[in-house]
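Chapter summary example: a protein plus magnesium ion.
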Amino acid sequence: NNPLLAGRAADLRDVGNKVMALLCGVKAAEEPQEPYILVMEDVVPSVVARLDQQKVAGILTAAGGASSHSAIVARALGIAAVVGAGEAVLSLPEGSTLLINGEDGAFYLNPAQSRIDEAMQQRALMQEQRKLAEAHCMEAAVTTDGHRVEVAANLGKVADAAGAVQRGAEAVGLLRTELVFMSHASAPDEAQQEKDYRVVFEAMGSRPVVVRTLDVGGDKPLPYLPLPKEDNPFLGERGLRMTLRRPQLLRQQLSALLKAADGRPLRIMFPMVGRLEEWHAAKAILDDALAETPCPNLQVGIMVEVPSVALIAEHLAKEVDFFSIGTNDLTQYVLAIDRGHPILSAEADGLHPSILQLISQTVTAAHRHGKWVGVCGELAADSKAVPILLGLGVDELSVSAGSIPLVKAQVRRLNTPECKELAAEALTCATAAEVRSLSSRNG
Ligand code: PEP
Ligand code: MG
């Protein structure tokens, strides 16, 4: 539990790796003095989190997908990344000149000077756009025809809430509480959790905070909560399925949240709901906690990540206060591609028409019952997706804090009738590539 000693553990592992490298005659890579592109098999969040942002100009990985957790962490740090580029990148000679484009996932080995010049120009232009967007980040995201879209922040660390507000966050759209748990060496008790959540509420003031209950399992193990080994952990005991089997854990987390909110706008959502019964079971535990700690400013919703709930959205929309579409998992389950799969995950594009159909159905059902819909997966910050999501009627986009200014700036350039037309056409496409090129042509 001692953070100082826990920090030393990382040092010790580092030394261990160096000794191993010496014993095996492997020349350990020296960190270059000038900014460099880090090429590796895959990046685990803990490695990315430790990278020196000033030195690492970009990340190129053999494995992983755009919605894998390593990519999400890289995005949160604002490091350009191309992931899932294939095994061949691991044999690129060290020290060669490399150009990566985090926008379209392309990379070039020893590019011609003309291409480098072009990229530099493009980068300067993007930096200029970002500066401009940042200057207006506190203003609302209103389309040219006056339609307002809420732009919220995805958070994994409670301490990042204040920074998100400075970047223009109008709400927290997704607090990944399993990452808050992971920042502790052992399971935080109710008092510790309440303290953690209060940090977010205090930073957000009167802005709403959407908190997702523990989403452990799949690619997010919690060291002090060992789960039985499963053949298909993504199809196993994860998210709400896990906490419903440990009701005390869920009850404790809900109590901590209700107490921390202290009258401020709290939105609770449950992850990985696949069936109506699961929602009812979760709601019963929440009602029990509410009987003890009433919460005057509460909305309760679910994440739409499992295709079945998008298909029965009509039933759920009568009961929930909101839906938040987790396109990372929804894409994984609709296309049957593991989001972190070393080879296939690059093909898991959230703009696939099948996913757009499910988003459309969810929004239609929600709006029919006067409920709102957010998107909190990585797709919400994808410039090709933003106009389509708006056109489908999504009310809130929740993105990493660094993306907020750009997403707001893009919304301000759009108008609703054109977005609706684009979305309607996208729904008729047969492939994700077609949707992307349609969006590019209309951008
Ligand atoms: C999602 O699945 O889209 C999501 C936002 O949740 P996570 O990435 O944490 O699984
Ligand atoms: Mg998810």
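Key point: The chain has a mean pLDDT of 92.
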